[in-house]
């Protein structure tokens, strides 16, 4: 109840982010229900469809955690501990708010699914997708409800773990905060990327020159290729903070001016906060480029169906929204520094130039990395 009362008094933009989480949850719930309907109509060959659903589910959980981190109602503030709202209680509220948003989306997904099957009549488009959703087969309600609880439970648990109270080491008074350490995930990221490309190459042996079918045609789709893509994406997410930190260092080389120096320091300071979302966005972009290479005009029949398009839209939208949310969190985190610079007389033009330099440096470094990994991922599948 406290989480619902806090939601009523929040800013409209915060409510919009929560509604976006609910919308993404509705899309994932609909995909899970479609997988269940396919399993009922075709008992064999539905495991890989469920594996494909894990990709948008993970993207939605990542987005839900990012929204929970930027929720102002769950930030510790002076005086809240006196009324029983300490860090632990605020973490529980964040997890409850995430569960409420995801449950709302799952409920909408169930209603839409039943409506398109024709089980709920009296509204426009009832039964419009009866053939696609196996309306001639009874829907196991217990299995449907079990699948729909996966996302709310996973997202709320992930939000609770991400926002759990942590003990910070004491800092002597009158000293500055120590500089952020260099992220050390680059070797591990390269290892996972290499392993993912190797697994994909091994899984595609014996079938050169043919693209793997997408979820609309799952019977002959090798699960090893999907596992290779997942390992590659995880490697990019692990290496993202180190690459972002490298962007900051490169900006400060060769006698930098004020704008380059400020942009580089900000990237180095915020490398861990925005690096992982950047790595995930690069992974999605590389997968998109690889899919465009595999399924071009010369690859034969177009394999993308409506459910594949929905899953791709969910993954792309959630990853981009997560990156924008992390960037907003980073902006709020350095708000005091920005105000101090303005009080010291720094022109607003300098801050805008610094932001433009940060964006250009990120594109200049992550763009070739994304393109190269996409070409390497598509190479063994195109023969």
TrEMBL record:
Keywords: Membrane, Transmembrane, Transmembrane helix. It comes from the Bacteria. The chain crosses the membrane at residues 49-69, 90-116, 141-163, 184-203, 223-243, 278-295, 307-329, 350-374. It comes from Streptomyces crystallinus. Residues 165-176 have a biased composition (Basic and acidic residues). The keyword Transmembrane helix applies. Residues 162-185 are annotated as: Disordered. This is Integral membrane protein.
């Amino acid at each position: 109840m406290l989480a619902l009362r806090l939601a009523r008094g929040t800013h409209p933009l915060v409510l919009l982010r929560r509604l976006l989480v609910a919308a993404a949850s509705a899309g994932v719930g609909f995909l899970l229900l479609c997988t269940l309907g396919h399993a009922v109509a075709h008992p064999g060959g539905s495991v890989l469809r469920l594996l494909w659903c894990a990709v948008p589910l993970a993207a939605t959980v990542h987005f839900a955690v990012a929204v929970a981190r930027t929720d102002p109602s769950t930030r510790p503030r002076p005086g809240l501990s006196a009324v029983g709202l300490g860090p632990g209680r605020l973490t529980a509220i964040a997890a409850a708010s995430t569960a409420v948003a995801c449950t709302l989306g799952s409920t909408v997904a169930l209603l839409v699914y039943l409506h398109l099957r024709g089980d709920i009549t009296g509204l426009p488009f009832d039964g419009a997708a009866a053939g696609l959703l196996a309306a001639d087969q009874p829907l196991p309600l217990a299995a449907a409800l079990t699948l729909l609880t996966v996302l709310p439970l996973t997202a709320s648990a992930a939000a609770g773990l991400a926002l759990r109270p942590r003990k910070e080491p004491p800092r002597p008074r009158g000293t500055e905060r120590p500089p952020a350490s260099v992220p050390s995930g680059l070797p591990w990221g390269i290892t996972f990327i290499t392993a993912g490309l190797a697994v994909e190459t091994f899984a595609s042996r014996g079938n050169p020159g043919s693209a793997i079918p997408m979820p609309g045609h799952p019977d002959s789709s090798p699960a090893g290729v999907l596992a290779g893509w997942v390992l590659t994406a995880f490697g990019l997410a692990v290496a993202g903070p180190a690459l972002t930190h490298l962007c900051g260092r490169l900006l400060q080389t060769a006698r930098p001016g004020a704008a380059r120096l400020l942009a580089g320091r900000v990237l180095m300071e915020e490398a861990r906060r925005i690096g992982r979302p950047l790595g995930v966005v690069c992974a999605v972009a590389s997968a998109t480029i690889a899919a465009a290479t595999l399924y071009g005009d010369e690859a034969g029949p177009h394999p993308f169906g409506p459910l594949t398009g929905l899953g791709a839209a969910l993954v792309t939208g959630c990853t981009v929204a997560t990156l924008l949310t992390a960037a907003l969190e980073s902006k709020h985190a350095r708000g005091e520094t920005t105000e101090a610079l303005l009080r010291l007389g720094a022109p607003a033009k300098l801050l805008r130039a610094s932001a433009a330099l940060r964006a250009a440096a990120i594109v200049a470094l992550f763009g070739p990395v994304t393109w190269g990994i996409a070409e390497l991922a598509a190479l063994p599948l195109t023969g």
